[in-house]
Amino acid sequence: MGNLHGLHRSHHAGQQSLAPPAPPSSLSSQSGPHMAVEPYCHLDSSLRSLAGKAEGFGRAAVGGLSGPICHVTSLADEGPGSLREACKRPEPLWIVFDVSGTISLSSFVHVSSNKTVDGRGQRVKITGKGLRLKQCVNVIICNLEFEGGVGPDADAIQIKPKSNTIWIDRCSLKNYHDGLIDITRESTDITVSRCHFINHNKTMLIGADPSHVTDRCIRVTIHHCFFDGTRQRHPRVRFAKVHLFNNYTRNWGIYAVGAGVECQIYSECNIYEAGSEKKTVFKYITETAGDKEKPEDGFIRSEGDWFLNGAKSCLNHEGKRHVFSPTQHYSEWTVESQTEKLKNYLKHSTGWQNLPLPSDQHPTSA
């Protein structure tokens, strides 16, 4: 992985606590604790270098690595050259855009298995409805904008049911009628990174409702994301195991992170900056699982988090005993200390980026 700027900690299998801070060996001798190094910085060097490079639970996602390049040549909702046409094809594809502009969707675009939807090189905004990942595996979604979804079930990215091995990276998401990202109904092994969430109420839901006890399988990593004035659900979790690290959440309207029935949330070196009124960071939400009689909430473990402007963690310290360790599930990840440099990076370098489309080392065309 690319090195992160600031102070680094590396994690390895079997480790039970944070290792002492140490600069990684891959940094040059000129780099120091105040040197900014972008995460995943080398992954734009070639088109398919994203494949398999996510950190966390979605690390195995290679998307359309084994397939040809498929060019979206039309901003139409459907038909030849459209995003919808590309996403429904059954074979592995690395989907790129030859056009910039807005794609207005009348219904969800269903993304089939083994696809990369790669928005680098253009500025593509999706509106009306969003992308639905339904019973699919191995998907990467990168560098898109989502804005202005309409309808009672309009999510920007909806992952349900039974989808897995997914990476959502560098997307800007705002102002949908329902959620921005929903992960429910036994969908698991997902990483969300470098995304910018803004102007929204119910931002991210993980776990459908207390009756869906099979959501106990859900595992999600969220890192280097910027939750920018969104009201709640950063995320809101039921049943799932969720690892949050190096995110910046500011000026929420109700609470920052919601812990519902049986969930386990490991919050590591995040920045929580309260607005002028609402100060609660971690909210425990009591619910009754569908196969139990006694109501309960979730568990949260906070390690190295930074609480600013009067933010109140409101932690129940039982979480330290009940929350999973990420080392039980993946051998290493990179995390840095919470600093002003990290905050500034996340303010300016998350969401859609004006990037050229990298060249393909093995150029093909569909």
TrEMBL record:
Gene3D superfamilies: Single-stranded right-handed beta-helix, Pectin lyase-like. Its cofactor is Ca(2+). One of its GO terms (molecular function) is metal ion binding. Residues 13-33 have a biased composition (Low complexity). The keyword Nucleotidyltransferase does not apply. Residues 1-34 are annotated as: Disordered. It catalyses: Eliminative cleavage of (1->4)-alpha-D-galacturonan to give oligosaccharides with 4-deoxy-alpha-D-galact-4-enuronosyl groups at their non-reducing ends. It is an enzyme of class 4 (lyase). Keywords: Calcium, Lyase, Metal-binding, Signal. Residues 65-278 form the Pectate lyase domain. Binds 1 Ca(2+) ion. Required for its activity. GO terms for biological process: pectin catabolic process. Pathway: Glycan metabolism; pectin degradation; 2-dehydro-3-deoxy-D-gluconate from pectin: step 2/5. Residues 1-12 have a biased composition (Basic residues). Its EC number is 4.2.2.2. Belongs to the polysaccharide lyase 1 family. This is Pectate lyase. It comes from Microthlaspi erraticum.
